[in-house]
Amino acid sequence: MNQTLASYKIFYAVANAGNISRAAKELYISQPAISKSIQKLEESLGAKLFSRSSRGVAMTPEGELLFSHVKSAFDTLSLGEEKLRRSIQLGVGHLSIGVSSTLCKYILLPFLKDFIRQYPHINISIVCKSTSHTLRLLEEEKIDIGLVGEPESLKNLVFSPLQEIEDIFVATREYLHNLRLRGVPKNLILQNSTLMLLDKENVTRQYIDDYFLEHQIPIQDSIEISSMDLLIESSKIGLGVACVIKDFVKEELNEGTLLEIPLSVPLNKRMVGFAYHQNMRQSKPLESFLRFCGRQG
After folding, report:
1. DSSP 8-state code for residue 258
2. How confident is the prediction along the chain (297 residues), in pLDDT tens digits per residue?
3. Partners of residue 244 on adjacent β-strands
4. Are 207 and 167 in contact, with CB atoms under 8 Å apart?
């Protein structure tokens, strides 16, 4: 295309108005400038676009052919502008959130319920990965924000606390009764039971391993399980003692389906919150999400 958009805009205005002086008023430019632009366009295309008379101008067949395509192009531009205005007004956009499957089910989804109600036009994608993987994605700026346990080192991340979580050990009443029948005292339950823990790549598991090491608790028998849900279900059938997050088994504890095992030195509570890269350009959806987080905090 050898002509500028401005040339076609002038042609489009003259064709719609059917009069050069009227088009000049609409475009806020002089009549001679319009006439010169039309002349250059005709010379470039090698075709006469308008026939002139005392009543104004009328398109030639060549002009009508060109007008059909120019009109389509300007209609498309107008539609694009309207959609852009509407998306800005409605807050349309996309937000990608990284989170582990456990935190997604028990913390993120309940949190998002109110956010979606307030910002229904923001499209959300959830990347379910381990916390360590989520932190890598944040560092590489491949996701907008992540729900993670508070990292030991923030590096280039900003961390906004959301809620505390507490790790506990649980088992069924029957499992604990059988341990007592074998002569296992209360203070040695962990050392003499089948412990069910998350896999070693999980941040929670690393935290529990550090606790065992610090307090010199030897583990005789253990089972690695891939998710918190499976840990909870496995403990409910009496397979062993599971390390779970207390908030996630409130119902089972209240009903007596599971019992919390008292520890001589309780595990320290941990903080869960949203993290994002401090140097990442914040999109409108991310800004809206952070404002919402601030109001909920």
Report:
1. S
2. 556 888 999 999 999 998 889 988 988 999 999 999 999 998 999 999 999 887 789 999 998 999 999 999 888 888 877 777 766 665 558 899 999 988 999 999 999 999 999 888 888 999 998 888 999 999 999 999 999 998 888 888 999 999 999 999 999 999 999 999 999 999 999 999 999 999 887 888 888 999 999 999 998 889 999 889 999 999 999 999 999 999 999 999 999 999 999 998 899 999 999 999 988 777 888 988 998 888 655
3. 168
4. yes
User: Which one, of 167, 166, 129, 124, lies nearest residue 148 by Cα?
Assistant: 129
Three-state SS string over 212-245 comes to HHHCCCCCCEEEEECCHHHHHHHHHCCCCEEEEE
On the CB side of 248, CA atoms within 13 Å amount to 26
Alpha-carbon distance of 38 to 87, in angstroms, equals 36
d(C-alpha 214, C-alpha 219), whole Å: 13
H/E run at residue 78: helix 61-90
Give the tokens for residue 205: 């598991």
Classified as helix, coil or strand, 294 is helix
Phi, psi of 6 (to 5 degrees): -60, -40
Closest to 176 measured CA to CA, from 251, 262, 76, 93:
262
Give the whole-angstrom CA distance, residue 152 versus residue 62: 71
Read off the DSSP letter of residue 247.
G
Mark out the alpha helices in 140-202 (DSSP H runs): 173-181
What does each C-alpha distance from 24 to 11, 14, 79, 176, 182 come to in angstroms?
11, 8, 24, 91, 99
- From residue 46, how far is each of 41, 62, 67, 100 by CA, in Å? 8, 10, 15, 65
d(CA 148, CA 271): 9
